[in-house]
Amino acid sequence: MKFTLLFLPLLAHIVNSQQPAIFDIGTYGGKPNANIDEALLSAWKEACAATTPSTIVVPRDTYLLNQVTLVGPCKAPIELQVQGTIKAPSDYTQLPDKNGQWITINYVDHLTISGGGIFDGQGKEAWTKNDCGKNPNCVKLPLNLSFNFITNSIIHDVTTKDSKNFHVNVIGCKNVTFQHFTVSAPGDSLNTDGLHIAKSEGIYVLDSVIQTGDDCISVGDGMKELHIERVTCGPGHGISVGSLGKGATEEDVTGIYVKNCTFIGTQNGIRVKTWPSAPAKLKITDLHYEDIIMDNVENPIVIDQEYCPWNQCKLDSPSLIKISQMTVKNIKGTSASPVAVSFVCSKTVPCENVEVGDIDLAYNGNQGPITTKCTNIKPNFVGKQNPPICANAAQSS
User: Fold this and answer.
1) Hey, which residues are catalytic here?
2) Segment 262-276, tens digit of pLDDT
């Protein structure tokens, strides 16, 4: 089985001859339909101090939880097994911490989160307050799950639902896998990225379903070796590298692999987006998109180096970010717009070493023939291209 092969090195560290000690939140006063802040924190404190593997159990039922931060390092592998549903307050003002997080886990090695349960952010009320795209002084709404400096860990068979903001934030992590992971939110839920991953290395998102109102997965700066395989995305805005470039100190992105994924009714499929008139000069390199199905996707394949939502910038100064070493192969399905492929690269640093092969996309509409748009790029082609890509590309002078 792929699961066994993939996690054998990880499980070799975790599996112990002893059965893990069980820390049931009920033992610490956690009751259904009541707040479990203190019960969860008390169980975590004891489990984290244990010198042998431990499992914290949230049994099948519904529980209420305010903002909590679970902190390591722990003395042995630790598992949070959520069998029931944990609900955040629906009123975001009841979460007093202004860090923008509901459940935060920091500095843990060999963490497992499992159990088939649900982290329910109850975000419907908060989505009406989200105007951060237009208002720099907007209300900072909490994320469902924030993982910071987590290593050698796996999050599997759990659901994050209706987050008030991003569902999952992954920062400073290494060798972490999300498998059989579900993100669930309506297509009109604002700024509810499924997973935002940045400044991390060796992150895997596998065999998962992401339905949300923004990017299914967004990649921030400093990302190395991200593998996304067998993921179904939609509704949502696709899988995006970026947006990047607004911060002068942003770090390079390298080694992004998206394979055997399906996009259903999304705004975008695969996308790389950078800001013009911005200071960052990082490099985006070693991007690989292969064996992907597009099902009525509005913008199936996109490089956008003029990303400027709500006119927050000027286009007169091109992006300074270099995109190179990119492959786009075996992309099939249907586009909901006549522009199936859009490669808009920077005039200052044109895209280089982009290979496109075996594209077969049909237009689902009646607004003219299917086309492509290409500026400041000269792709290398292998196999068949339908529609013809970059036939009349505008190149930088």
Assistant:
1) 237
2) 999 999 999 999 999
